[in-house]
């Protein structure tokens, strides 16, 4: 894409390590994408900036005026494909307007593809599919199209079909179904020379391709007609001839269907990137079909407990609910106020979606601008951290290269260099006026955040010497700011620093970057499992009063805590009394009970006790919550984080508030002490119960290895087989049962090795028949499983896994684990 747009002068290669967007040493060494990279280019390129013949790039019929005939700015984000880097994909998807899903023409729709597809569906991102690697032996375009229907739950709209030499020879080009022409690429060329064959010429020289193009055009028109009334009218005007529908009408219909809410239409394109076939038509499809920033739905925002759209706030249409902690009674809390028109006060609003530490440029914060513009030297207020800093340097990124710019407009992706505070998921705004903080409600404006999945693996990090410890922690802080799916904690008993992540490869790469890029003098220990603890029984109410004499906990405050086991939140419906503060995180529930206050902030029925002037009820609730979360991060028996635990904290002003001596930090410390004491009380008759992560595992294997894999999972690893399916199950349903796709009605061209009709699904003979095993397996049994799977399947088996739930360990496995923990680690 970068080569054809004139951005680079040579085509990079993953195998050679010469790609533009995979520039990290670890990426080039392993041949995979580890971190997402952003790059901006123009398509189609201007005449001055490109040696390509513009007719080759956009050669369309005279009666069409597609969007690809005028130059567009494309912000491209290249994301990883490996399951361990799922957070990198998730935070990139958060800021995208459209996506190209690249499928392997040999492997088809793989298990990880389904996961990323589902993540994109969370954000309602329009997607088109590019089936790549059609030059390889065993490539099956038709089979992959059917898998798109069965596994991704959509109707594939085939916009291109592969062109094989002589019908069964090498892959030499694509048939354009929309424009009814063949695009023939030069063998072993750079892809810039494209010979276009109109349908009349194809009839004479390549009748098989011409016949298939007619079938594909009829199938495309029929499919779109079922979802778009305007195309039905155009079809009648064209005398019910599928070939008389103009390319412009088809493109308009495809675009309408793709951008419609809840759309199930998936445009499909073909190519072989390694042979430089099919890339320019895909770029045309990006500009013709995928939405511009202004065509996307209004960005979701929240202001306190109010949620809505960003444009609603700007135009004064958003009714903001007031969260007043000192309201006279709980029913008045959350009452609505009149809509606030902020006019031109909000000059720019952006989301920080990625932070990178560059050895030359320092900290780079990648932002997506959602409204207005972010100008150079503008004062940016971070509504998440409630602080301000100036955007002294703005950059537009070209992978690891950059160009300074004066401003970033709405819809653009760029970088703020040298930011001290911003983190992934923070909302940044610029506003008019000279006030140090923006006026309400702008100071509470937050764009929809990015959820961080819980880590399941951890390893110990040790500095090479005590002198290096401070430097290691500084480098770790940089790494954590870059990747929030990594977590670092300190073991209070051993003093060890523990780093947690999403998978074995994730932690290996983190350690590699820490040592080789950030130059920390440290080493990583053996990778272990992140277990959880849960309480065996409820505690009694425990009250603790902190009288801090150290600077960190100066002050005096108290708290009453009650802890109890909680049923699995996946199965239970949690109902709390109205007006009670509750917070749920990682399967734990924290409830904070505070007295109802009168107009002056005094508890009702108490004349002599009032809150100190430096504290409000929301601040007390936040302080108690932080104390409870700190206690929940370390269990009483084995020092693992708690799970399925309910913590109820109660504030009694007459016992717990001591006038001006009571501070925010003393309340936090008191809540933590009371919660820890309650944990000890709950475990006085027996230790906590250990819980282990149980994974959803999707294993793709060939038919011959299926028996061995099933026996290994169910017998040796204590797993539970959920289902066995054909890798491209013709009658399979997508994960979402509401989107039932009848695969027999999907049009797919005949594959070169396929016998019988080319019509949908009548003959599915498959080379190297693949099956998918879905199972639930304890994570402990999956450590190092990839090497074992490859040895069982002759190197052909692959798998992906994700956390399903945490389950209690019982019986012999619990005894063995406790013995291992006490013998080896505790």
From TrEMBL:
One GO molecular-function entry: GTPase activity
Main location: mitochondrion
Compartmental location: Mitochondrion
Cellular component, GO, one term: mitochondrial matrix
Stored Pfam families: EF-G_D2, EFG_C, EFG_III, GTP_EFTU
A GO BP annotation: regulation of mitochondrial membrane potential
Domain Tr-type G: 1-294
Origin: domain of life: Eukaryota
Annotated positions binding GTP: 78-82, 132-135
Similarity annotation: Belongs to the TRAFAC class translation factor GTPase superfamily. Classic translation factor GTPase family. EF-G/EF-2 subfamily.
Protein known as: Ribosome-releasing factor 2, mitochondrial
Species of origin: Capronia epimyces CBS 606.96
Gene: MEF2
